[in-house]
Design goal:
By secondary structure, the protein is mainly α. The protein folds into two domains: 167 residues, no CATH class; 70 residues, no CATH class. It is 66% helix and 3% strand. It has a two-stranded antiparallel sheet with strand order 1-2. Strand 1 and strand 2 form a beta hairpin. Helix 1 runs antiparallel to helix 4, helix 1 packs parallel to helix 9 and helix 7 crosses helix 8. The longest helix has 33 residues.
Length: 273
């Protein structure tokens, strides 16, 4: 028998963490906005469109209300990966135009410089947009939106929600495993190979622990009827309202502005054409 709950009338119970307007937007809308911007940047390899999107995104980041410390803490992989990817493209990208320096496989030309700058800016624009959107999304709200707005199967949505909730426990489990190994005197290996062997053993232990917890959770959810194929009801209603359409229009406007300026400046390079 499927466990169901009564569905309240109106969207008043759909809440998210935070008090800013972005926190009250449907998570599905945020995913759609990030997809629109990302698709625009993927469609062309040029620094103008990526730079325009990055500037417009920076103007909108304040709307999300994310503190600078939190922003830097969550975005450092993107801030590190973007210049590294740009540098790699600069050194090993397809050579074209005037040549500036060449050594073995490294060849810096006008074309590689252009591609390197464009690659770095595109990674920044796509990554930061997605990061800011996900920082303002509550997993439960996202599950409500995917099930009620996108109409994804409830079995998939609830399983994904459970996985997202458990993912945060992995950090605590890793820390607990490390402390337990140190208490048994096996956490102070010397040398690079010793530390690597210790890290691999601890990673395998974490994998086993995660699989066991996932299996127990799956069994418990099946026992409570979460895997049934019958129609479910939802405790909180998730709908598209005016603010959701407003965010979609902002994303479309950002994408259109980037494409327009890039085409006007002659840098638009449609890769699917």
């Amino acid at each position: 028998m499927t466990r169901t709950t009564a569905t309240p009338t109106g969207p008043a119970l759909r809440t998210s963490k935070g008090t800013r307007p972005i926190h009250r937007v449907n998570p599905v809308t945020k995913l759609a906005a990030a997809f629109i911007i990302s698709l625009t940047l993927i469609a062309s390899v040029d620094w103008v469109s990526a730079g325009v999107v990055l500037v417009l995104e920076a103007a909108l980041f304040g709307w999300a209300g994310i503190r600078l410390s939190v922003f830097l803490k969550r975005s450092w992989p993107i801030l590190l990966a973007a210049p590294l990817a740009g540098l790699t493209t600069l050194l090993y990208g397809e050579p074209s135009g005037q040549s500036y320096w060449q050594f073995l496989f490294v060849h810096i030309t006008d074309g590689s410089i252009y591609l390197g700058v464009a690659t770095g800016l595109r990674i920044l624009a796509i990554g930061l947009a997605g990061m800011v959107m996900f920082l303002t999304i509550d997993p439960t709200d996202l599950a409500d939106g995917l099930a009620q707005v996108v109409r994804l199967p409830a079995r998939f949505v609830l399983g994904a929600l459970a996985a997202m909730r458990l993912a945060g426990l992995l950090v605590d489990d890793w820390r607990s495993l490390g402390l337990a190994r140190r208490a048994r005197g096996v956490g102070d290996s010397q040398g690079f190979m010793g530390k690597l062997r210790l890290w691999l053993n601890q990673a395998f232990s974490l994998l086993v622990l995660a699989l066991r917890r996932g299996s127990k959770l799956a069994t418990a959810m099946e026992a409570r009827g979460f895997g049934a194929d019958t129609q479910r009801s939802w405790a909180r209603e998730s709908v598209f309202v005016g603010r959701d359409w407003f965010l979609v229009m902002i994303a479309v406007l950002v994408a259109a502005t980037a494409v327009g300026i890039s085409v006007w400046s002659g840098h638009w390079n449609f890769i699917f054409g």
